[in-house]
Amino acid sequence: MKATVVAGLNRGARGVGLALGLPVLLFTAWWVFSADSTSIFLPPLSRIVEAFGQVWFSEVFVRDVLPSLRRLAAGYAAALLVGVGVGYLVGRWSVVRDLTSPILAYFRVLPAPVLIPVLLVAVGIGDATKLIVIAVGAVWPILLNTADGVRAVDEVQLDTAAAYRLRAWTRHGLILRAATPQVFAGARQALGISLIVMVVSEMLMSTDGLGFTVIRFQRTFAIPEMWSGVLLLGLLGFGLAKVFETIERRALRWHRGATGREESW
Protein backbone atom coordinates (compact mmCIF):
# COMPACT_ATOMS: atom_id res chain seq x y z
CA MET A 1 0.00 0.00 0.00
CA LYS A 2 2.78 2.38 0.97
CA ALA A 3 4.71 1.54 -2.21
CA THR A 4 1.61 2.28 -4.29
CA VAL A 5 1.16 5.68 -2.65
CA VAL A 6 4.83 6.54 -3.17
CA ALA A 7 4.65 5.47 -6.81
CA GLY A 8 1.56 7.62 -7.30
CA LEU A 9 3.28 10.63 -5.74
CA ASN A 10 6.34 10.07 -7.91
CA ARG A 11 4.19 9.93 -11.05
CA GLY A 12 2.38 13.10 -9.97
CA ALA A 13 5.64 14.95 -9.29
CA ARG A 14 7.06 13.80 -12.61
CA GLY A 15 3.91 14.96 -14.42
CA VAL A 16 4.05 18.40 -12.79
CA GLY A 17 7.74 18.68 -13.62
CA LEU A 18 7.17 17.81 -17.27
CA ALA A 19 4.20 20.19 -17.53
CA LEU A 20 5.94 23.18 -15.93
CA GLY A 21 9.59 22.57 -16.86
CA LEU A 22 9.60 24.14 -20.33
CA PRO A 23 7.31 27.09 -19.44
CA VAL A 24 9.52 27.94 -16.45
CA LEU A 25 12.63 27.69 -18.63
CA LEU A 26 11.16 29.95 -21.31
CA PHE A 27 9.89 32.42 -18.72
CA THR A 28 13.34 32.59 -17.11
CA ALA A 29 15.04 33.11 -20.48
CA TRP A 30 12.55 35.88 -21.33
CA TRP A 31 13.24 37.57 -17.98
CA VAL A 32 17.02 37.43 -18.44
CA PHE A 33 17.26 38.44 -22.10
CA SER A 34 14.70 41.25 -21.80
CA ALA A 35 16.16 42.76 -18.64
CA ASP A 36 18.13 45.47 -20.51
CA SER A 37 15.52 46.14 -23.18
CA THR A 38 14.87 49.79 -24.01
CA SER A 39 12.28 49.11 -26.72
CA ILE A 40 8.88 50.62 -26.05
CA PHE A 41 7.21 47.69 -27.79
CA LEU A 42 9.25 44.95 -26.06
CA PRO A 43 9.60 46.10 -22.45
CA PRO A 44 11.45 44.04 -19.82
CA LEU A 45 9.47 41.17 -18.40
CA SER A 46 9.87 42.67 -14.93
CA ARG A 47 7.78 45.69 -16.04
CA ILE A 48 5.17 43.41 -17.57
CA VAL A 49 4.87 41.40 -14.35
CA GLU A 50 4.59 44.62 -12.35
CA ALA A 51 1.84 45.86 -14.69
CA PHE A 52 0.13 42.47 -14.41
CA GLY A 53 -0.24 42.88 -10.66
CA GLN A 54 -1.39 46.48 -10.91
CA VAL A 55 -3.99 45.86 -13.64
CA TRP A 56 -5.48 42.46 -13.00
CA PHE A 57 -5.44 42.36 -9.21
CA SER A 58 -7.86 45.28 -9.09
CA GLU A 59 -11.39 46.19 -10.07
CA VAL A 60 -10.42 45.55 -13.71
CA PHE A 61 -10.71 41.83 -13.02
CA VAL A 62 -14.37 42.13 -12.03
CA ARG A 63 -15.14 44.65 -14.78
CA ASP A 64 -13.45 42.88 -17.69
CA VAL A 65 -12.37 39.32 -16.88
CA LEU A 66 -15.61 38.04 -15.32
CA PRO A 67 -17.80 39.20 -18.26
CA SER A 68 -15.42 37.43 -20.64
CA LEU A 69 -15.64 34.21 -18.63
CA ARG A 70 -19.44 34.40 -18.59
CA ARG A 71 -19.56 34.83 -22.36
CA LEU A 72 -17.07 32.02 -22.86
CA ALA A 73 -19.05 29.65 -20.62
CA ALA A 74 -22.41 30.48 -22.21
CA GLY A 75 -21.17 30.24 -25.80
CA TYR A 76 -19.27 27.03 -25.12
CA ALA A 77 -22.26 25.45 -23.37
CA ALA A 78 -24.49 26.31 -26.33
CA ALA A 79 -21.95 24.79 -28.72
CA LEU A 80 -21.86 21.61 -26.63
CA LEU A 81 -25.63 21.21 -26.62
CA VAL A 82 -26.05 21.88 -30.34
CA GLY A 83 -22.92 20.00 -31.38
CA VAL A 84 -23.70 16.82 -29.46
CA GLY A 85 -27.39 16.88 -30.42
CA VAL A 86 -26.94 17.53 -34.13
CA GLY A 87 -23.83 15.36 -34.29
CA TYR A 88 -25.76 12.43 -32.86
CA LEU A 89 -28.51 12.82 -35.46
CA VAL A 90 -25.99 13.12 -38.30
CA GLY A 91 -24.01 10.12 -37.16
CA ARG A 92 -26.98 7.90 -36.31
CA TRP A 93 -29.14 8.25 -39.41
CA SER A 94 -27.75 8.25 -42.95
CA VAL A 95 -30.77 10.20 -44.26
CA VAL A 96 -29.97 13.13 -41.97
CA ARG A 97 -26.30 12.87 -42.92
CA ASP A 98 -27.06 12.98 -46.64
CA LEU A 99 -29.44 15.94 -46.25
CA THR A 100 -27.11 18.03 -44.11
CA SER A 101 -23.78 17.15 -45.70
CA PRO A 102 -23.67 20.08 -48.19
CA ILE A 103 -24.74 22.61 -45.55
CA LEU A 104 -22.25 21.32 -42.99
CA ALA A 105 -19.46 21.30 -45.57
CA TYR A 106 -20.16 24.97 -46.29
CA PHE A 107 -20.49 26.32 -42.77
CA ARG A 108 -17.67 24.30 -41.23
CA VAL A 109 -15.11 26.22 -43.35
CA LEU A 110 -16.74 29.60 -42.73
CA PRO A 111 -14.67 31.51 -40.12
CA ALA A 112 -16.85 32.61 -37.21
CA PRO A 113 -15.47 36.22 -37.14
CA VAL A 114 -16.83 36.68 -40.69
CA LEU A 115 -20.32 36.63 -39.16
CA ILE A 116 -19.58 39.61 -36.91
CA PRO A 117 -20.58 42.36 -39.42
CA VAL A 118 -23.79 40.49 -40.27
CA LEU A 119 -24.69 39.93 -36.62
CA LEU A 120 -23.92 43.55 -35.75
CA VAL A 121 -26.56 44.64 -38.23
CA ALA A 122 -29.08 41.91 -37.37
CA VAL A 123 -28.66 41.59 -33.59
CA GLY A 124 -26.68 44.62 -32.42
CA ILE A 125 -23.57 45.08 -30.31
CA GLY A 126 -24.83 43.35 -27.18
CA ASP A 127 -23.74 40.09 -25.57
CA ALA A 128 -26.08 38.06 -27.79
CA THR A 129 -23.88 38.73 -30.81
CA LYS A 130 -20.73 37.61 -28.99
CA LEU A 131 -22.42 34.47 -27.69
CA ILE A 132 -23.58 33.52 -31.19
CA VAL A 133 -20.10 34.05 -32.62
CA ILE A 134 -18.48 31.94 -29.88
CA ALA A 135 -21.04 29.16 -30.29
CA VAL A 136 -20.75 29.12 -34.09
CA GLY A 137 -16.96 28.98 -33.91
CA ALA A 138 -16.89 26.17 -31.32
CA VAL A 139 -19.72 23.95 -32.51
CA TRP A 140 -18.01 22.29 -35.48
CA PRO A 141 -15.33 20.19 -33.76
CA ILE A 142 -17.95 18.91 -31.32
CA LEU A 143 -20.52 18.17 -34.03
CA LEU A 144 -18.13 16.41 -36.40
CA ASN A 145 -16.38 14.36 -33.71
CA THR A 146 -19.72 13.33 -32.22
CA ALA A 147 -20.99 12.22 -35.63
CA ASP A 148 -17.81 10.22 -36.27
CA GLY A 149 -18.01 8.65 -32.81
CA VAL A 150 -21.64 7.62 -33.26
CA ARG A 151 -20.94 6.14 -36.69
CA ALA A 152 -18.02 4.14 -35.30
CA VAL A 153 -20.06 2.37 -32.59
CA ASP A 154 -19.61 -1.39 -32.85
CA GLU A 155 -22.56 -3.02 -34.62
CA VAL A 156 -22.31 -5.94 -32.20
CA GLN A 157 -23.30 -3.61 -29.36
CA LEU A 158 -26.30 -2.37 -31.33
CA ASP A 159 -27.37 -5.91 -32.21
CA THR A 160 -27.00 -6.99 -28.58
CA ALA A 161 -29.13 -4.08 -27.39
CA ALA A 162 -31.78 -4.94 -29.97
CA ALA A 163 -31.69 -8.63 -29.01
CA TYR A 164 -32.33 -7.73 -25.37
CA ARG A 165 -35.14 -5.43 -26.52
CA LEU A 166 -33.83 -2.46 -24.62
CA ARG A 167 -35.88 0.70 -24.76
CA ALA A 168 -35.09 3.22 -27.47
CA TRP A 169 -33.81 5.83 -25.00
CA THR A 170 -31.58 3.21 -23.37
CA ARG A 171 -30.09 2.28 -26.75
CA HIS A 172 -29.51 5.95 -27.58
CA GLY A 173 -27.75 6.36 -24.24
CA LEU A 174 -25.50 3.37 -24.93
CA ILE A 175 -24.57 4.73 -28.35
CA LEU A 176 -23.79 8.18 -26.99
CA ARG A 177 -21.73 6.69 -24.16
CA ALA A 178 -19.70 4.65 -26.64
CA ALA A 179 -19.05 7.84 -28.63
CA THR A 180 -18.02 9.82 -25.53
CA PRO A 181 -14.23 9.62 -26.16
CA GLN A 182 -14.61 11.35 -29.52
CA VAL A 183 -17.13 13.81 -28.07
CA PHE A 184 -14.50 14.84 -25.53
CA ALA A 185 -11.89 15.10 -28.28
CA GLY A 186 -14.09 17.58 -30.13
CA ALA A 187 -14.96 19.45 -26.95
CA ARG A 188 -11.26 19.85 -26.17
CA GLN A 189 -10.62 21.44 -29.57
CA ALA A 190 -13.71 23.62 -29.21
CA LEU A 191 -12.52 25.02 -25.89
CA GLY A 192 -9.44 26.60 -27.47
CA ILE A 193 -11.48 27.90 -30.40
CA SER A 194 -14.02 29.42 -27.99
CA LEU A 195 -11.30 31.37 -26.21
CA ILE A 196 -9.86 32.69 -29.49
CA VAL A 197 -13.24 33.71 -30.90
CA MET A 198 -14.20 35.34 -27.59
CA VAL A 199 -11.13 37.57 -27.69
CA VAL A 200 -11.65 38.48 -31.37
CA SER A 201 -15.31 39.36 -30.83
CA GLU A 202 -14.46 41.55 -27.83
CA MET A 203 -11.73 43.33 -29.75
CA LEU A 204 -14.13 44.20 -32.57
CA MET A 205 -17.45 44.89 -30.86
CA SER A 206 -17.34 45.35 -27.11
CA THR A 207 -16.99 47.95 -24.40
CA ASP A 208 -15.67 45.51 -21.80
CA GLY A 209 -13.92 42.15 -21.59
CA LEU A 210 -10.37 40.90 -21.98
CA GLY A 211 -10.16 41.48 -25.72
CA PHE A 212 -11.47 45.02 -25.40
CA THR A 213 -9.04 45.82 -22.57
CA VAL A 214 -6.00 44.49 -24.46
CA ILE A 215 -6.86 46.49 -27.58
CA ARG A 216 -7.52 49.60 -25.45
CA PHE A 217 -4.06 49.30 -23.89
CA GLN A 218 -2.55 48.93 -27.37
CA ARG A 219 -4.32 52.02 -28.68
CA THR A 220 -3.21 54.13 -25.70
CA PHE A 221 0.39 52.84 -25.94
CA ALA A 222 0.20 51.21 -22.51
CA ILE A 223 2.50 48.48 -23.79
CA PRO A 224 3.42 46.70 -20.50
CA GLU A 225 -0.27 46.57 -19.62
CA MET A 226 -1.05 45.20 -23.09
CA TRP A 227 1.54 42.44 -22.65
CA SER A 228 0.11 41.67 -19.22
CA GLY A 229 -3.26 41.03 -20.89
CA VAL A 230 -1.58 38.65 -23.33
CA LEU A 231 -0.02 36.80 -20.40
CA LEU A 232 -3.38 36.59 -18.65
CA LEU A 233 -5.02 35.13 -21.76
CA GLY A 234 -2.29 32.49 -21.95
CA LEU A 235 -2.69 31.60 -18.28
CA LEU A 236 -6.45 31.48 -18.68
CA GLY A 237 -6.18 29.10 -21.64
CA PHE A 238 -3.71 26.90 -19.76
CA GLY A 239 -5.93 26.78 -16.68
CA LEU A 240 -9.06 25.94 -18.65
CA ALA A 241 -7.22 23.19 -20.51
CA LYS A 242 -6.07 21.62 -17.23
CA VAL A 243 -9.58 21.79 -15.75
CA PHE A 244 -10.97 20.15 -18.88
CA GLU A 245 -8.25 17.49 -18.75
CA THR A 246 -9.21 16.64 -15.16
CA ILE A 247 -12.90 16.34 -16.06
CA GLU A 248 -12.08 14.25 -19.12
CA ARG A 249 -9.85 11.93 -17.12
CA ARG A 250 -12.60 11.24 -14.62
CA ALA A 251 -15.38 10.93 -17.19
CA LEU A 252 -13.42 8.52 -19.40
CA ARG A 253 -12.05 6.35 -16.63
CA TRP A 254 -14.26 3.49 -17.85
CA HIS A 255 -12.83 3.84 -21.37
CA ARG A 256 -9.22 3.66 -20.20
CA GLY A 257 -10.07 0.61 -18.13
CA ALA A 258 -11.75 -1.11 -21.08
CA THR A 259 -8.76 -0.44 -23.35
CA GLY A 260 -6.13 -1.31 -20.73
CA ARG A 261 -4.63 2.18 -20.63
CA GLU A 262 -5.18 3.10 -16.98
CA GLU A 263 -1.60 4.24 -16.53
CA SER A 264 -1.32 6.31 -19.70
CA TRP A 265 -2.68 9.50 -18.18
> Roughly what percent helix?
over 70%
Give the total of beta strands. Answer: 0
Name the quaternary structure. Answer: single chain
Spatial extent as radius of gyration:
23 Å
- Give start-end ranges of low-pLDDT stretches: none
Mean pLDDT: 84
What is the CATH architecture annotation of the largest domain? Answer: Orthogonal Bundle
Main structural class? mainly alpha
N-end to C-end Cα span? 21 Å
Topology diagram in text:
Elements: H1 2-33, H2 45-56, H3 59-92, H4 94-107, H5 115-122, H6 127-151, H7 155-163, H8 168-178, H9 180-204, H10 210-219, H11 223-251, H12 253-259
What does this protein structure show overall?
The protein has 265 residues and is an all-alpha fold. 82% of the residues lie in helices and 0% in strands. It is built from twelve helices and no strands. The chain has helices spanning 2-33, 45-56, 59-92, 94-107, 115-122, 127-151, 155-163, 168-178, 180-204, 210-219, 223-251, 253-259. Helix 5 packs across helix 6 (127-151). The longest helix has 34 residues, at 59-92. It starts with a helix and ends in a 6-residue tail after the last helix. The model has no long low-confidence stretch (mean pLDDT 84). This is Nitrate ABC transporter permease.
